[in-house]
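Support case: 2-deoxy-2-amino glucitol-6-phosphate complex. Customer-provided input:
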Amino acid sequence: MCGIIAGVSSTPIAPYLLEGLERLEYRGYDSVGIAVAGGSHLVMRLRSTKRVKDLGRRVRDLDVPRLGTIGIGHTRWATHGEVSTRNAHPHNDCTGRLAIVHNGVIENAAELRELLVGLGHGFGSDVDSEVVAHLVEEARAGSSLLDAVREATDALVGSWALAVFDGTTDELVVASHQSPLVVAHSVHGHFAASDIGAIAPWVEDFQVLEDGDVVEINASPRWHRREGLPPEPELRARPPMHVQPSLVVHADYMSKEIEEQPEVAARIMTELGPRVADGELWRSLGLPDFARVTFLGCGTSLNAGRALGQLLTRNSGVPHQCIVASEVATASVEDKTLVMALSQSGETADVLRALSSNLLGSAPVLAVTNVGHSALGRRADAVVECSAGPEIGVAATKTYMAQLLTGTCIILSALVARGTLDPVRAAQLVGDLQRAPDLLAQAIGASRRAVPAIAEATSEAPGFLFLGRGAGWRFAEEGALKLTELTYRWAVSYPAGELKHGPLALVERGTPVVVVDDQARRLAVDISEVAARGGRVVRIGGPGSTIPALGNREATVLGIPWCGPFESVVAMQVLARELALTLGCDVDKPRNLAKSVTVH
Ligand code: AGP
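Agent response - structure generated as follows:
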C-alpha cells in the first residue's frame, strides 16, 4: 500500500528515491511518483501508473546530475479517486513550488477542499491528500515550512504521514499522525520513510515520529513535538536487512512460500520449542498473568487468531474473544485480559488504530508479527516474531502457518507458567508440534499431485463453499479467504453443522464444496447431504480423500492434538493458487489488494 520516502543528500536525490521506492514495492501500489528540486529551483515532478522501474527509465532520460539533491517519492494505492497519473503523488500547491506526499486518509478533505476552492485554490487531482498542499501554501506567507506544516496539520482530521518540500528554499518537512514515519541521518544524507526498510541500506539507526510530530529534515533537524514528550525520540538500531528473495525454481512467490512452510515450521520449533514446557517463553515476555485472551487482527491474521482462540479455549478452558480490528468499537474488554495482536506486516492501519483507541482499556498487548521492528512491534508491550522470513506474495501463506505455530507455543508456555498445564503434558505437545514440518511437507506433496485436476474441473464454478467442524472449520475459513482473494470467485465458509440452516440452498449440481475432513463426528452426514444434492465434494482428509493431505494417522480425528488438522490449509492454498493460474490471474499480486494495508 502507500509508501513514502524523502531525503536530502549531497548528491542527486533521485537515485535514492527510486531505490527506496523499489524497496516499498512489495507493499502493493497502483501508481508511483517523485518530486525533486530541479536545477533552476523548480519542483520537477514525475508520475506514472506503471512500475517504479518505468519511472526510473524516465528519470535516467533526464540529466540526473542536474537534478536536485532534495526530494520526495511515493507509491500510491488508490483510496480517493481512480488510478491515474493525475491522482498519483506528489501533489503540488497552486504556485508549483511546494510538493507533498501523503499516506493515510484526510477525513475532512471534502470540507477543506470547498474552503480552499472558495479562497481561490485550483485543484489538479481528485485525491484527499492534495488539500494538504494548498493548506501549507495558505500558511506559508512569512512562515518557515515547519511552521506552515504545523498550522496546516492543525486543520486536518484523520491520519497522515506527510513529506512536504519547497523547491525554492530547499526546506523539507515531515509530519505524522496515526500513520508510521521514521527519520534517519547518515553520511549518505538525511532521510524520512514510512518504513525503515526503504532507507535501511544507507542508515545505521533511526527515530520514530510520534503522533503530532513535525520535523524539519536537514543536517540540524528541528523537531516539533506535543507537550509532555521529550524533545526528540530515542535512536533505534536499524533492523537486519532482508534481501529480496529470488524465485530460483519457482514460477511465482506464492509457490515458493507455500513450499517453504516445512522449513519455517522447523525453524519456529527450533527457536521456541525448547522454551515452552518450562514456561520460559512466556516468562521472558514480562507480561502479567491473564484470565482471558482477546485475539485482534484482520484477514488471514484474524483467521490465525480465530484458530488459536479456539484451540486455547477447547483445550484449557481459558475464555477468548476475537476482534476484527476494524470493528473494535463493538468490543468490550474485561479485567485481566491479554490482547494478542496478530499481523504479518505489523503495519496494518486497522490494527494500529484499534490499539490506539481507548476501547481495549489498559490490557497488555502481545504482538505476534513477522516484522518485529514494525509499528505494531513498537506499540506492543511485548513482541514475538514469527520467523517466517520475507513474504512477497500478497496472499499470506507461510506467515499464517508461522502465526499458528508461534501462537501455539506462546499459549502452551503461558499455561505452564500460570500452572494450568502440566509441564510433562506440555513437553508431549511440543513433541507433537515437532512433527509439523513433516506433516506440512506431506500435505504439500499430496496437494500438488491432486489439486491440478480439481482446479481444472471446477474452473467454471462461480462460487465455492468451505466446510469443517471444530478446528477444521477455522482452517476452512482461511481456505475460503485464500480462494476469494486469488481467483475473484466468491467463497464462503461455514461450520458444517450450519449447512441445513441456510447455505445448503447454494448447493446444486456441480457446486464445489471443500470439506476439511478430519473425521470429526457427524461430518460424514454433512458430506452426504451435499453429495445427495449433486454438489462436488472436495474432501481434504486422509487416504482415499480427494486431497489426501492429512496423511495416515492412527488418531480417530486427523490432525495434531491441540491444533487440529492445520496442514489442511496447505491443500487450500494450493487449490487457490492452481485455480487462479487456471483462470489467468496473477497469484502474487491479486487485483485491488496490497501486502501491507496501511489505510483504514
Ligand atoms: C491475506 O492473504 C490477505 N492479504 C490479508 O487478509 C491480510 O492477512 C490482512 O490484510 C492482514 O494483514 P497483516 O497480517 O499484515 O496485518
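The chain has a mean pLDDT of 92.

Case will auto-close in a few days if no follow-up is received.
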